[in-house]
Amino acid sequence: MKFFIDTANLDQIREANDMGVLDGVTTNPSLMAKEGISGKENCAKHYLTICEIVDGDVSAEVIATDYEGMIKEGMELAALHPQIVVKVPCTAEGIKAIRYFSEQGIRTNCTLIFTVGQALLAAKAGASYVSPFVGRLDDIASDGILLVENIVKMFRYYCYDTEVLAASIRHTQHIIQCLEVGADVATCPLSAIKGLLKHPLTDSGLKAFLEDHRRVNEGK
Ligand code: E4P
To answer: Sorted alphabetically, which PANTHER family does this protein's record hold (predicted)?
Structure first.
């Protein structure tokens, strides 16, 4: 399973990349706003900086909601850098835009996926990725991981090439559950990625190893 980081924060992107396990980055308009990045030029500059830090796909989302606007914005985003994947919402206009981009050889990530049916439409239109939102479904007492599992099964059964990019990951256990159901990618906050490292037996085991080593080598 590939690991993407779900942020527009450059320090966090650098930290995850330095761990040596990062395969890509996803952003959305809210994450860009959180970093205070506004205006077309600044956004473009920021996406380019991310592409320089990480050797992998970088999702950049269109703001337009009409077909023509999505095409114009998506073409501009895609022209920025070969690593850019144009992120498009799962609406009727969005699905049409994904079909257009796919015919132009431009890779897309269909976002705001909450049903298997939406994922099917995106895959049929030629999306490179679909992003089912795990945490937001869990938030309303629905089962986000079950949605990921059902999309994975449907894509395998019908041999779609579209990758399942589990999004809205809130914690480390979500990552483990994504592994269990065969997601192709999980895009996660840095805290959830770091959580994979943690185990008290690792900490106590290392402490004991170092104490034993010191006792014999330093006579303590
Ligand atoms: C990423 O592609 C999504 O936009 C993001 O994971 C949404 O996460 P949230 O539900 O925590 O806002």
So the answer is: FRUCTOSE-6-PHOSPHATE ALDOLASE 1-RELATED (PTHR10683:SF40), TRANSALDOLASE (PTHR10683)
The pLDDT tens digits for 7-32 are 999 999 999 999 999 999 999 999 99
Mean pLDDT of 139-167: 98
State which residues form the domain around 75: 2-218
Q: Whose C-alpha lies nearest to ligand 1, atom 10? A: 168
Give residue 52 CA to ligand 1 midpoint distance, Å.
22
Cβ burial, residue 6 (10 Å; 0-12/13-18/19+) = buried
Q: Which residues does a 6 A CB cutoff place in the pocket of ligand 1? A: 6, 26, 28, 111, 131, 133, 135-136, 167-168, 187
In this structure, the number of other CB atoms found within 10 A of the CB of residue 20 comes to 6
Residue 220 has pLDDT above 70, yes or no: no
CATH code, domain carrying 202: 3.20.20.70
Mean pLDDT, to the nearest integer, of 129-154? 98
Catalytic residue among 87, 96, 194, 220: 87
Report the Cα–Cα distance between both ends of the chain, in Å, rounded: 45
Quote the ligand 1 centre to 28 CA distance (angstroms). 7
Contact partners, residue 204, CB within 8 Å, separation at least 6: none
Going from the C-alpha of 33 to that of each of 52, 112, 122, the distances in angstroms are 21, 18, 26
Residue nearest to atom 11 of ligand 1 (CA): 168
Of the candidates 48, 50, 76, which has an alpha carbon nearest to the alpha carbon of residue 63?
A: 76
Tell me whether residue 198 is one of the annotated catalytic residues.
Answer: no
